[in-house]
Amino acid sequence: MNKRVFLGLMGILAAAAWAAAADPLPSWNDGAAKEAILQFVAGTTTEGSPDFVPPAERIAVFDNDGTLWAEQPMYFQGLFMLDRVKRMASQHPEWKEQEPFASLLKGDLKTAFAGGEAAVGRLLMTTHAGMTSEEFEKMAADWIAGARHPKTGRLLTEMVYQPMLELLAFLRANGFKTFIVSGGGMEFMRPWAERVYGIPPEQVIGSSIKTKFELRDGVPVLVRMPESDFVDDGPGKPVGIQMHIGRRPVAAFGNSDGDLAMLQWTAAGPGARLCLIVHHTDADREWAYDRESHAGRLDKGLDEAAARGWTVVDMKNDWKRVFVFEAEQLVRPDSGPQ
Amino acid sequence: MNKRVFLGLMGILAAAAWAAAADPLPSWNDGAAKEAILQFVAGTTTEGSPDFVPPAERIAVFDNDGTLWAEQPMYFQGLFMLDRVKRMASQHPEWKEQEPFASLLKGDLKTAFAGGEAAVGRLLMTTHAGMTSEEFEKMAADWIAGARHPKTGRLLTEMVYQPMLELLAFLRANGFKTFIVSGGGMEFMRPWAERVYGIPPEQVIGSSIKTKFELRDGVPVLVRMPESDFVDDGPGKPVGIQMHIGRRPVAAFGNSDGDLAMLQWTAAGPGARLCLIVHHTDADREWAYDRESHAGRLDKGLDEAAARGWTVVDMKNDWKRVFVFEAEQLVRPDSGPQ
After folding, report:
1. Architecture of domain A26-73+155-329
2. Distance between CA atoms of B89 and B97, rounded to whole angstroms?
3. In this structure, are residues A83 and A143 in contact, taking their beta carbons and an 8 Å threshold?
4. From residue A54, how far is each of A45, A270, A271 by CA, in Å?
5. Of A51, A289, B44, B176, which is the most buried if we count CB atoms within 10 A?
6. Contact between residue B220 and residue A238 where contact means Cβ atoms under 8 Å apart
7. Across the interface, do B265 and A194 touch by the CB < 8 Å criterion?
8. pLDDT tens, B236-252?
9. Are strands B177-185 and B59-62 parallel, antiparallel or unpaired?
10. Is A174 in contact with A41 (CB distance < 8 Å)?
11. What is the DSSP string of B265-310?
12. Taking a C-beta distance cutoff of 8 angstroms, is the pair A40, B178 a contact?
């Protein structure tokens, strides 16, 4: 082959390699969801585009449970709570006769949680309050370092959705500031959100309990009090966003009715918006649930997404790979047998 | 002159120009305060230094009133409150006979504020609640665009300390993330803090009132409720820092006893720390006040700064220039007559 043909061929190969390397969302199958993300980012970051958003206003908010990591068979913070109760039980012999502790320690979760919100609240306050913020941070960090999923046996921090990690990175590479806005405990997420999601503590918004400043023998501490301060769920999410960010997001990502108000608040701003719901449709690789689920119920949100034309991710069909731990070759049916 | 001498001279001139241009704090006189700042930044940002702080942990928190802008003859948010009462008075004829409104409308502030915290609380709720967050943001932005200082006649946004703007910029240029942590209203500061200080809304922490999400004819709004939510002053400051940042600052800047807990919390962390108090000592260019002042009282803080070796800025002697509006040549005594 002559030199010109050779160089031409090299050029084509290089372009193909570049195109492959340049796909910012390799775990997303081509389809409406991926296209909506790519178009939104192109429009909001191209100067002169009618949809252009200045970098300072590129705020993207993500729910955590069911949106960035799994939430079945129960919210992972619930697993932390149960482990804490077991670990604390030896100091509390009285729990053998007190509900919800007694049932919980016998492994009878159904009876333990029969008390509803009051029972959960009591368990939360017992396990999440009464220590300093630094002690709690260490507790959560130590726990998550070894905590495994009851079904898959994987570390909980591996039960994270690979396509969403790619989306977070893609948005950040395009000047978006990414926030977590979760119903989960703010201080439960912060010790690991930076390592796992690349989201620093100051961009993690969540539910919280009251905290009090004290000098203990001259040493300042923040003491976690057994009293709810803020519930960052449902209509609390836009409130939490206003409190912590003070600017309306241009993109919001959720998976349940608890995210509906956040999506509505985001959608109602002027200019281009990306509102996206992760729909759990994959019983083989993950779980399939929506309108009837106890965790992450998605009912009104599904209707509103359809009515308003929001992007709904069909996990089964839109994602090549679900969890970060899945070997890539196993979940790339479009790349042929290997 | 021969070419070698010429080039040598050019080199010296260039180096001198570079050195002058490179002073990151030109409005600070040489002295202990400036030296402490320069040493802290050099130590925390030099890899291999025992004081090195990774970029993600370079959190610097600034009080606002009396630290970044003036606070005499009263907190500027108080001026906003008084203007709002006057503007709202025509809709409230009953105020002519109700305190604290009646005295306030007659210009008798002493009687109006005689009711103490309860009176101020009532004025605050009347003027700061009952509208949506977007309406309040516009109100604050419109007001600050034209609000002038009762003594200097300058725009309030010009009553900002030039040396502190330089300090903010210097820290940011060295990878620090700068936050406001103020007793003032979070939503009062956010509409202008980015333009004036380069601090985006998500890095403005302050006091707040409760906010509620509502759908009004299908349009989502956040409604400001007449109820205090969080007081970001005194022991509230470390709590606000934990809530919004979730990481202990390495540098804290204040000017009053309301900042003491924040300074203590910052100082108590491991490694290099910069704790700095702006001491108002300049009755000619600004105001001179400390232990007895009604606004920005600095009493315990002054004692603790001395005991702990914190940096105290003597405004009169440490600052060449106080306000951003001062012409530079007037306040550079060390540069000789011009």
Report:
1. 3-Layer(aba) Sandwich (3.40)
2. 12
3. yes
4. 8, 13, 12
5. B44
6. yes
7. no
8. 999 999 999 999 999 99
9. parallel
10. yes
11. HHHTSSS--EEEEEEEE-TTTS-EE-TT-SSS--SHHHHHHHHHT-
12. no
Cα A231 to Cα A29, A123, A182, distances in angstroms: 35, 16, 9
3-class SS at B87?
A: helix
Q: Is A23 exposed, middle or buried (0-12, 13-18, 19+ CB in 10 A)?
A: middle
The structural domains of chain A, with segments of one domain joined by +, span: 26-73+155-329
Would you list the DSSP string of B140-175? HHHHHHH-B-TTT--BGGGSBBHHHHHHHHHHHHTT
pLDDT tens by residue, B109-130: 899 888 888 998 999 999 999 9
Radius of gyration of chain A (CA): 22
CA of A49 vs chain B CAs: smallest distance (Å): 24
Which of B180, B186, B222, B264 is most worth mutating to test chain A (most A CB atoms within 10 A of its CB)? B222
pTM: 0.91
Q: Has domain B26-73+155-335 been given CATH number 3.40.50.11540?
A: no
Kindly report the three-state secondary structure assignment for every residue of A151-208: CCCCEHHHCEEHHHHHHHHHHHHCCCEEEEEEEEEHHHHHHHHHHHHCCCHHHEEEEE
- How far is B164 from chain A, CA to nearest CA, in Å? 22
The tokens for B167 are: 């300090």
Instruction: Flag if A239 and B212 touch (Cβ within 8 Å).
Output: yes
Pairing mode of beta strands B251-254, A204-216: unpaired
Distance of alpha carbon B141 from alpha carbon B192, whole angstroms = 7
Q: ipTM of the assembly?
A: 0.90
Chain B: which residues have CB within 8 Å of chain A? 56, 59, 133, 177, 186-187, 190, 194, 200-204, 208, 211-213, 215, 219-220, 222, 235-239, 242-247, 261, 264-265, 268
Output the six-digit token pair for A54.
Answer: 């200045």
Q: Are B294 and B330 in contact (CB under 8 A)?
A: no
- Strand bridging mode B288-289 / B274-281: antiparallel
Whole-angstrom Cα distance, residue A172 to residue B58? 20
DSSP state of B38: H
Is the backbone peptide bond immediately before B50 cis, with ω within 30 degrees of 0? no
Rounded CA separation B192/B201 (Å): 9
**B62: which DSSP letter?**
E
At A308-320, the pLDDT tens digits run: 999 999 999 999 9
Mean pLDDT of A129-153: 97
- For residues B18, B24, B27, B32, the Cα torsion angle rounded to the nearest 10 degrees is -110
